[in-house]
Amino acid sequence: MSASPVRVAIVGGGIGGLAAAAFLHRAGIPSVVYEQAPELREVGAGLVLAPNAVRLLRRLGAMDRLTEHAVPLEVGWEFRRWEDGRVLSAEDLVGACERLYGERTYTVHRADLLDAISSAVPSGAVRLGRRCTSVTVRADRAVVAFADGTSAEADVVIGADGVHSTVRGAVTTPTPATSSGICAFRALVPAEHAPAFARRRAQTLWLGPDHHLVHYPIRGGAVVNLVAIAPAGDGTAESWSATATVAEFLAEFADWDPRLRELIQAAGTPGRWALLDRRPLERWSHGPLTLLGDAAHPMFPFFAQGAAQSIEDAAVLARCIAQDPQAPVDALRRYESLRIARTARLQEVSHARAHVNHLPDGPEQEARDAALADADPLVANGWIYAYDAEAEVSAASV
Ligand SMILES: Cc1cc2nc3c(=O)[nH]c(=O)nc-3n(C[C@H](O)[C@H](O)[C@H](O)COP(=O)(O)OP(=O)(O)OC[C@H]3O[C@@H](n4cnc5c(N)ncnc54)[C@H](O)[C@@H]3O)c2cc1C
């Protein structure tokens, strides 16, 4: 570390922001995380952690903390047909995943993941109740202003403030989000109310016309995470607090395999999140400012890589800054050039999956099902799972 360390301010204490603070700390660089929430509450639901994220979390020591709660999946991407549950394809996540990628795939509750990453961040590095309202660049440093009237100066500002990022407005002029016409119903079902097929250690996806439905266990198997994609109708709120009713949820899946009714009926008050469409950004950095996670590359959840990509960003950004703490603006350029192509590709393939997952019955759907039966997604997605973000920085520096 340099004698006068670079001052890093991170706006947003979600998965990406906390991971950035943890990787920077590991590299000997202090940072301060400014989070708008006044307290750390249990928000969110389930997430899949694929090997590309797990190997990074393990280096932080966060997997030790997660062991009690994370569910090691035995079956992944188990695609089933909507009307009768016929299995179209499934991944072996017990033997093959570890053999190919050196790590298993886990499911977690977002709150447990945040807790595990926080354990790798020094106490006192997170300031709660600090909502960023603007960021101003002055020469080679930046000033972050907060809603409570305070401000902070830093040599680097990382905008990890999620899909509705404030920092993004100071970095680039993004094209406005457009309606995708689809929404996600979300629920956490206590395992004792869930049918046996949903309690298996499997990530299951039911595919049907204009809809698909995903479920997997989290919290050591105590809870089943349920997410279903359907036409958006009047639901336009892109928010984790917007809700729907079980009746609305059931109506979307009325003709589907009757076993799904039992699961949906246990959904309590489902959340309803409108998915908005955003094109990949061409740049993430402006002078001492950069973006990370959903602020940089919001993506549809169909490859389950939103959280993983924010963790990869954090690992790469910390390495780039640590390599040259005296020239942080150059480090941000390097970070951006290492990350944009990969995350843009994931944004594009996640987007394309909406069409493929929702095909009406017919020749195109039959061709899709045949392709699913032939291809092993664990191998086909090797470009995602085999990726070691930290090794990529080292390789690019040679
Ligand atoms: C509440 C919540 C619940 C989620 N639940 C799920 C889920 O169940 N399943 C799933 O697949 N994905 C979920 N996601 C999305 C998923 O977590 C993201 O794809 C992934 O975490 C990307 O991480 P991120 O750090 O970029 O953004 P986020 O995890 O969205 O974190 C952004 C953080 O920035 C803070 N913030 C925003 N604006 C400001 C501001 N102006 N000033 C200061 N702080 C600010 C937010 O409070 C938040 O803590 C959730 C996101 C949120 C915010």
From TrEMBL:
Pfam (any one): FAD_binding_3
InterPro entries the record matches: FAD-bd, FAD-dep_Monooxygenase_BioMet
Keywords: FAD, Flavoprotein, Monooxygenase, Oxidoreductase
Domain of life: Bacteria
Coiled-coil regions, chain positions: none
Signal keyword on record: no
Domain FAD-binding: 6-346
Cofactor(s), names only, from the UniProt record: FAD
Keyword DNA-binding (UniProt): no
Molecular function GO labels: monooxygenase activity
Protein name: FAD-dependent monooxygenase
Organism: Nonomuraea guangzhouensis
